[in-house]
Each structure stands twice: as structure tokens, then as C-alpha cells.
Hints:
Blueprint: E1 3-10, E2 13-18, E3 23-27, H1 28-33, H2 38-41, E4 43-45, E5 48-50, E6 64-70, E7 74-79, E8 87-89, H3 90-96
Zinc ion (ZN) is lined by residues 35, 37, 39-40, 83, 85-86.
Amino acid sequence: xxxxxxxxxxxxxxxxxxxxxxxxxxxxxxxxxxxxxxxxxxxxxxxxxxxxxxxxxxxxxxxxxxxxxxxxxxxxxxxxxxxxxxxxxxxxxxxxxx
Length: 98
Ligand SMILES: [Zn+2]
């Protein structure tokens, strides 16, 4: 499963076309709220799960400022509040697609 085209279909929605011909849309809000990075999701180290710190919601939190492809398996998204550590694999994106 590979995304063949990713674009903003509206100011607050991402539109993705997949190599099997399917297309899907992901609201930027859902994309950001499901950020897969350790800071947002928490992480499990040696069987102990660390919960993320409560986050401040800064202005620009849901403004997409950049998308960069990571290898052949994921994209890295930058947000208006400066957050850019989330690596979204195709699998994560496909699961978020409506
Ligand atoms: Zn994050």
C-alpha cells in the first residue's frame, strides 16, 4: 500500500490517492490528534509505558506547514506550532482515511 498522491483538498483536509485506486480524506485535526510520535503517543520502554506530558494547544496546532516523504514508507508532517516529529506511515494514513 503506497500513497501515490497527497494534497490539500481544502484548507483543513488532506486528500490521498492510493496505488490501488482508492482515495481518502483526512481532516487535519484528526491527523494531528493522531500524531504517532513518542511525545504525543507516549512510548513503551522495557515494558513500562510512559504517558505523554499534557500538551499545551498552541496557535497553529492544526495548520499544516509542510509534508516531506520519508523513504518509501511514510511522510513527516510539520505543523504551524513547530511540531514536526510525527512520522506517518502509509498504514497509519490509510487507517485515518475516511
Ligand atoms: Zn507528535
